[in-house]
User: Fold these one by one.
Assistant:
Number 1:
Amino acid sequence: MSGNIANYSVSMILNVATGRPGASIDEQSAQQHYTLPDGFSVQIFANDLPKARFLRFTQAGDLLVSRPHAGDIVLLEPDRDGDGYSDARRTVISELDRPQGMDFDGEWLYIAERERIGRIRFDHNAGATVDHYEDVVTGLTGDGNHWSKTIRFGPDGMLYLAQGSTCNICVESDPRRATIMRFRADGSDGEIFATGLRNSVGFDWSPVDGALYATDNGRDMLGDNFPPCELNRVELGNFYGWPYFNGNNVPDKDMGPDPLAQQRLPVAPVHGFRAHNAPLGISFVDGSDWPGDFDLVALVALHGSWNRSEPDGYEVVSLHFSDNGIEERTFLGGFNQDGNILGRPVDVIQGPDGAIYISDDYAGAIYRVSTDTPAQRPNALDALNTAADTTTPDWVAQSDVQALARQGAALYQQHACATCHEQGENPLPLVEVSYDAIERALVTPQAPMPLLPLSETERRALAAFIVSGQ
């Protein structure tokens, strides 16, 4: 199970293979390495938030942060004392099943979990939930590669839900996967709004014409530079190509003709990101008071590649809309230092103070970008020690490890693990992994790794096989 890790750091490989976070970023490193257009500055608003994903502001100006792998939603209070940091944090709800997307509808906080959407009353002034959590939409599927769910309320008052595919390339058994759906606020009248969207993690509406735009992650295993990731203008009833077409409606060689070609035509993206850049969160922002040309702009978080020979992405870009099309520019860059990855942006949102807030699930940080002069800070935070756990769990000594490893070899083959870890142009090698790291990754996998239906014994068997290097 060896492979070429190309120019990626080992910590980056471990992040994708096992979900292990990278080292936290301190203020000094952020100021030294991160880049912005002239007139902007970046500061760390909050640190030590492992796997921070999606963001939403309350009416009182508190920032909610979802953490799917921790199963909770954390509230960050604004910076009222002027030191640049969030003044305090607390967990507002926990024991959820991989919550990611969030949005408000008045006093209701809606949360998208792996297999359902729920809601709970929220006191904006107190920054706290009220009463009990209740189901809104149930019976969703959460298996496969892209189990996360993103939700937003649209200008029409409807609740929109994006859920990705179970696979890299396949025909879905659940027609709701790889789509955007919409529902009434109570979860009724659900319908598929658009199809053929492999993994549209982020979406937002243009303030100019109300059009819905969604990012989409292109498929893997076709080389470094194809297919492009996408920005789609999503309209009711449209088909956006996956799994039969990639990019500008190029037929997929692994799928053959679309059997529904007589009933639908694929709609091409309005913008192509570089291949494997993994665009996630998107927000249209008000840049009217910013220096430079930011009249009609959306910011997009590029999570970064995991399967190309040269790492790419790892930045926040600005998309500038004009009559001539869409121009992409780097907004917040510097996360990739010659293959040493400092962070992986996930979501981007404009706060009530006009500043931009960006989540980073690799460094476990929330960044604040503004046109303000950076606040004077106390001593920089020490980076967290994220060395691999080398402790051997008790079950290893109590087991027939060789027999487990043989069982694990069969499971490795059964679930086609070699497809990503050994095969293709840029396989993701399993390097420097411990028993515990493998077990954790199998229980709470990080995309693109699928959620496999494994018992505890089967997870340990796979761990024994991988650690043994057989």
Number 2:
Amino acid sequence: MSQTRTGHCMCGRVRFVARNVPQVFGACHCDMCKRWSGNMFNGVSVVSGDLDLTGQDHIRRVQTSEWAERANCESCGSPLWYRVTEPEFEPKTHNMALGLFDDTSGMTLGHEFFVDRKTSANDLPKDRKQFTEAETLALFAPEDASHDQGDKQ
């Protein structure tokens, strides 16, 4: 089942509405994705014609290989998408960074690329300390700071 989803970068200058978004997303462990996103890149493929972007003047596109580009927000640095640019590649899609979406409920990991490059950094031990939003804010945020989903942290 696919649906319409919205999202934005950290600063909100780049926003989007994506239609027919699949419930299944992928992860990439290639070295470029790790450097670009800070770890594995989690993205969901959206057919380019189903993607409405605002804030185009804040998007920085970089041809990162002979066949693909990556884009980020020039203002806040948020990774936006990975896209194959080869003319023969069909369908034309934007692999949108999962973290941009306002709501990812019901979405599941369905495939991984470059699994031979996967590192132990993605193996989460069961006995790790986990902090809720409230606990994290109590540790790091000033007492008078308000926190709203999507605001800068």
